[in-house]
Amino acid sequence: MYRLRPVAASSGVTWPTLLGTLLVSFIAGTATALLIQLYVVPRVETRKRREDRWERWVLELGELLTGSVADHAADLHAAQLVYREARDRKDDYTPGQRRQLKREAEQANFAYGSLISTQVDWLVERVVSISPKAREIVQFQKAWWNYEMATVFVRPLPEHDTSAEDQFDEAWKVDRDSRKELIAEVKVLAILPHPPTPSRWRRRLKLQTR
Questions:
Q1: Could you list the residue range(s) of the whole structural domain that residue 178 is in?
Q2: Side-chain half-sphere of 88: how many Cα atoms within 13 Å?
Q3: Which CATH number goes with the domain that contains 109?
Q4: Cβ-based neighbour number of residue 59 at 10 Å
Q5: Which of 17, 36, 141, 162 would you call most buried, defined as having the most Cβ atoms within 10 angstroms of its Cβ?
Q6: Does some domain include residue 6?
Q7: For the chain, how far is it from start to end, CA to CA, in angstroms?
Q8: Cα 5 to chain centroid, rounded
Q9: In this structure, is the dihedral angle defined by the CA atoms of residues 157, 162, 165 and 166, taken in order, positive or negative?
């Protein structure tokens, strides 16, 4: 009578070895999933929130420039024109009327300048902060500096406004043109699928100079 003898697996793998391998694989998979949850996912979510905020700032800046800023600029221009006429044609206006028109010009001046130096400047800083060295951001910032400087020349106080008519008109033309250029740069940023980043050669140069 023959007895059956246990035959070992041809691969030589025993149950303890197999269980150990499965356990190691399970632990490695769990650790990987945990690392992804703890580090990768939060970083991705943080970057997504940052991109969303940046896109919102760009849109808000565009709406501000084409809305309130344009309106305040038009109000100031109109107030200055009326005051300059009253100042130059004193016989047609009483002293009280000239004082009133001067106050209106001062108020319009303050409103325009305040909007530029607070809301617009704040949004510009937020937009630039995403990647100051990116080509699109550099172009945008140049357009902002040009416009910011142009607004200075159209905002003299009424008593300091001694410009000739052609100089006055030219200053306002520069203001309008530079604002259009800034709006054009905002449009470039608004259509980007993602916030801009520095070009590859700029990143390489930065690493080499460290």
A1: 52-194
A2: 11
A3: 1.20.120
A4: 14
A5: 141
A6: no
A7: 84
A8: 79
A9: negative
